[in-house]
Each structure stands twice: as C-alpha cells, then as structure tokens.
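so im writing up the methods section and need the Phosphomethylpyrimidine synthase record in one place, dumping it here so i stop losing it
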Amino acid sequence: MRNKVYVTGSRPDLRVPFAEVPLSDGSAPVRLYDTSGPATPSPVRRAWIDERGPGTNVTQLHYARRGITTPEMEFAAIREGLPPALVREEIAAGRAILPANVNHPESEPMVIGSRFLVKVNANIGTSAVTSTVDEEVAKLTWATRWGADTVMDLSTGRRIRETREAILRHSAVPIGTVPLYEALEKVGGDPVKLSWEVFRDTVIEQAEQGVDYMTVHAGVRLAHVPLAAERITGIVSRGGSIMAAWCLAHHEESFLYTHFAELCEIFARYDVSFSLGDGLRPGSVADANDAAQFAELRTLGELTSIAWEHDVQVMIEGPGHVPMHKIKENVDLQQEWCHEAPFYTLGPLTTDIAPAYDHITSAIGAAMIAMYGTAMLCYVTPKEHLGLPDRDDVKAGVIAYKIAAHAADLAKGHPTAREWDDALSRARFEFRWEDQFNLSLDPETARAYHDETLPAAPAKTAHFCSMCGPKFCSMRISHELKEYAAQGMAAKSEEFVASGGKVYLPVVPR
Ligand SMILES: C[C@H]1O[C@@H](n2cnc3c(N)ncnc32)[C@H](O)[C@@H]1O
Ligand SMILES: Cc1ncc(COP(=O)(O)O)c(N)n1
Ligand code: SF4
Ligand SMILES: [Zn+2]
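--- predicted struct ---
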C-alpha cells in the first residue's frame, strides 16, 4: 500500500509528490521518491515557464549561473531532501543537469548528478518489426510506475512522430530521444543520404514537441572510425554506426561535429539537454576501454566545453560491455576529460555469456559504476540482444536498475537513502509481514511469494516463514536472546554456573 502525498514548496503551485508507506507499528510512514505521475499529467511547469517569458536562452544552466533558483530547482531539491542552493550550484558547475524543455510542461522536475540520488532511465519505443503507439504509452506508464526517472523514446520505423507526441503528453518524467533515428527514416534509411539540414530540422521538430534531452553522436569523428576496425563486435551503437557509415562514404568530418555550435544555439532556445552519445562504446568485454572508445570520450570532453559556452546542459553517455576490473577507469577518465559533467551509462554488462539475463549481467556493472559516481543508469532488459522488450521485460529491467541505483546511493551515503532499508529491516525483524511487503520495491511479488507456501491470514503475523519453519527461525531465536539479555545476563550466568551448565538458553515464556 502506497499513499500519494504532496509536499508544498515556497509557492502553492510547487507541489512535490511522494509515495508514503504507512506502517502498522505506529511509527512514522516512510516517504519514497515517486515518479509515477498521473496517467494524464497536468502542466505543472506552465506558470513557471510563462513567468520567465520567451528568450534565446532559457536553460536551467543559464539561470543557475546567474544565481537564480528556479521553481524547477526547488522542486528537484525537495524530492532529494537537499537544499535548493545545492541543486543550483551543482547545475551551475555543470556537475548536474535538470532536463526540462520549455515545451514539456507536464514534466515533474528532477536533477541528474553525482551528488544526487542515482537515476534510472528506461528505453522504450517501436521498431520496424513490432509494437504500436498504445503499447509504447503503456510501457511508459509501466516503467515510471516501477520507478523509471526518465524514459527514452527510441522508436524507429513508422509513426515515430505520433509515438513521441503520445509519450510526451502522457509523461511526468523527462523524455529523451535520438533524433538521428528519425532523420534516417526521413532519408529512406540510407545513412549516406543524411545531411546536416535534415538532422537540424528533425531536432527542431522534436524540440518543439518538448523532448527534454537528445542523444547526439558528435564524438564519432572520421579519424576515429578505423580505430574500431579490429574489434570483435565492431560498432554496436546504432547512432555510432550510422555516423561512421556517413563519414566513410563521404570521406568527410561528421556534420554533427562540424555544426555542433549551431546545434547548441537550438538547444539553448528550448532548454534541450545534450546526452553526448557513445557511438564507439564497446559491445563486448574484449573491446572495453580500447583506443576507439577513449578517443571518442576525449572528443565528448571538448564538445562539453562548447555546449557550456552556450549555457547548454550536458551529460555524457558511457558503455556498454565492460568487465568489472575495467569499470572504475571509465568513470575516472570521464570525470577528468569531461570536466565532471554527469555520466550516463548503459549498464555496463560485466560479461557477454548470458543473453536472456542481461538485466543481471548489467545491473552488476551498473551498481559498481554508480558507486564510482555515475549519475544515471540506462537500463538493460532480459531481451537485450534478442528482441524488442515487452511490458514484463520493462518491469524486470527497471527493478534490476532500481536495485543497482539504490545500492549505490547507500554506498555513497546519500542522506535519505538508509531510512528505507532500516524501516524494512525493522519490519522484517519484528515479523510485521504486511509492512515488509508494503516497503518492498515490488510489493505484489513479495506478497505473492509469501502466499505460495503460507497463504493463511495468521501466517502474516507468524514468527517464521517456510524457509526455516518455527523451530529454526533465527530471527525468532534472536528475539529470545534479546529477552534473555533484558532479564539480566549476570543473573543468568550465575544460574548457568550453579546448574553445572544444564541451564543453557532457557526458553523464555512468550
Ligand atoms: C542503446 C540501447 O537502447 C536499446 N534500445 C534500442 N531501441 C529500443 C527500443 N525501441 N525499445 C527499448 N530499448 C531499445 C538497445 O537495446 C540498447 O541497449
Ligand atoms: C546510455 C545510452 N547510450 C546510448 C544510447 C543510444 O543508443 P545508440 O548509441 O545505440 O544509438 C542510449 N539511448 N543510452
Ligand atoms: S542484433 Fe539486434 S540488437 Fe543487435 S544491433 Fe542488430 S538488431 Fe540491434
Ligand atoms: Zn550489447
């Protein structure tokens, strides 16, 4: 059971949602960060955007650098349980972004940066092979219900624009896209026919609709392409492979790289954030941390500086497939070369051997990379490498990544992270089964698993479950140890000695 509650900020129209879990022992309910906006979200940001008025630069970075704390920043700060000034300072320093296109007023503001809660992105979208607009809107609602903090619409094939419009208008979380995909559809799917003009027009159309951040693979330069030639898995990024094909066919520098400043001007007018794409990310553990990947990363650092000159917000996309011992180097180099811009990584998958379980191979890497400072994790579902994820895959992916993100929040010591774990642990130790279920990341599944063996109502207060049974329940025995201690260890020790060792762990009357 979760109750939606709102915390009001410094103005009445600044109402921040939380999911509250009531507890049966009379202690204070636990407040959880909530992303599951209403099915048809209202334009919560409308008044704030209108008050600031039109301009050629309307980015949160622009305001932050001028010392202005926007309502969006305060909203995000309340969600984090942190001071609004910290959000403003982190954005001003480029260490955090607040993706919030002025044409996406339905978006409930959130902040992405290493000082804040680790965020999770869920990828959805149609492909030429399968799915419809309605199915993708359902995936959006489903993904955010389980806690996705942002959603990327990676649609390809037909009706890309309609799919995106439906997703945006139903989304209370920021929406990301890869405009190159739609640009490629416009030229009939032939990368060679792409041009700056087609790409630019696509970006403007998507910005008009309200896309909050866009992946731009501007780090795939002509000279980098040969560096990937000897890899086991070549170029696995769609955007990366498309741009590499264009560069080689024209034997010309990438139009994304040569027109980057112009792109910044467009982004500044709408406050679209860059997600600088990792077009040369490794697609196998063998290819991790190679020359191609790191040459691109250096270029992304250069591009970050250019975007910041235009007050445009930036995050950096990262790999991919990386074995555990090579993960830390990715964060260290990204932070150094990209001037501490937030890192946003796909997993990474820590081994290549488990298709159908890549939500697990990658959640391991995601937990590690987040602990080292990655700000947002892009989920991987069980269908990775096999097909388009369906609703069940979306849930499996989001849950796996919420676990990775929260585990990292704990390791990093985010001030609000521990409360949830402690409340659940107390409920577990006190055999408050309903509280334990309600506090679970996935309450329905937790309850259903308990019901499988002990469905009767009395089992929901019993001091054991079917794992150990009543006699071997270590937590029940621990309660007796506690009572034993409470009765006075000294007296009991004397009794023990006097009895010649016969009185040992007496059963305390219940
Ligand atoms: C970059 C990541 O995006 C995922 N990806 C690409 N297209 C889609 C889609 N339509 N739906 C869900 N995930 C997608 C890939 O599986 C890859 O992991
Ligand atoms: C973290 C991350 N990395 C990359 C992409 C884009 O996909 P692609 O590079 O395959 O076009 C993405 N959507 N998210
Ligand atoms: S094999 Fe499937 S997932 Fe991999 S690049 Fe090709 S279409 Fe995409
Ligand atoms: Zn892969």
